[in-house]
Fold Leucine carboxyl methyltransferase 1 homolog.
Amino acid sequence: SGAHSSTVAIQATNDDAAASKLSCVKKGYIKDDYVHFFVRRPVRRSPIINRGYFARWAVLRRLLLQFLEPKCYSSESIHMKKQILSLGAGFDTTYFQLVEEGITPYLYVELDFKEVTSKKTALIEHHAQLKEKLGAEATICKEKGEVLGDHYKLLPVDLRDIGQLDSVMALAQLDSSLPTFIIAECVLIYLDPNSTCSIVRWASKAFSTAIFFVYEQIHPDDPFGEQMMKNLESRGCPLLSLHATPTLLAKEKLFLDQGWQRAVAWDMLKVYNEFIETQEKRRIERLELFDEFEEWYMMQEHYCVAYAINDANGIFIDFGFS
Ligand code: SAM
């Protein structure tokens, strides 16, 4: 059916993301000793794509580390437990990296379609370097596409079904009062606008101390944006939510309308220029010959980071871009 083929196509965008991250690793843009387990056919991406993925990786990483840092919190809650919830996590490897770095959060939960979590479950089971990071008590069920470890849960869910999100809260033992970092990296954009709103509202109700991080496209209406939309449509995965949230202001409004206290959206050009660390930029800008500046600016203007904050206890006052 059409619905089925578009689901398959959207899942394929995950293979693309993993392959692109591996391309960045091989060129020295980012360090990730785990993503290669998830890529069957490595590809070499162009310098501009590598730089774009580097920026995407660097901004999420910097905000995540801010969130995990103890000093972000008042002195009496320095050892506060923290949760990360990744929606449409695909083959993301952040959990394994955090364990390696000795900053495992109290709970890390990943959700995706069962087809994707099943593949991820099988690969985790198969590779000791992944499996050993789950802890001794973990249960791994390939048939269900499910991993239940002490600090890590991987669960199959269709994000469009809010009832399933409630069940996942219980099954994963997510605590609605703990500081929670929600990640939606290139995910909401593929959902219909109603589902996107429902998820954003659900998350706001579910977590009183939380950050909702989004990385995705903007500006579908200029020539570059139209081309971007067409490319994905021709692959069978239209950006269904983009016309409902086409601008930075619209992304902020999405969160504020659905109950979040604060929201900030920047395009990736601004993020790259003003938030990614200068030293890091200097390092990666030497890695490959690069002369597509016009295209780089254009591309970065068509991606954004938005984050929304619920801050019941005033612990996120210093969090964010500025
Ligand atoms: N977040 C990962 C990253 O940035 O590397 C993967 C991004 S990939 C472009 C989009 C992911 O969202 C895919 O893994 C896809 O299966 C998942 N996804 C899309 N719609 C979904 C839905 N309704 N329920 C669960 N997962 C979904």
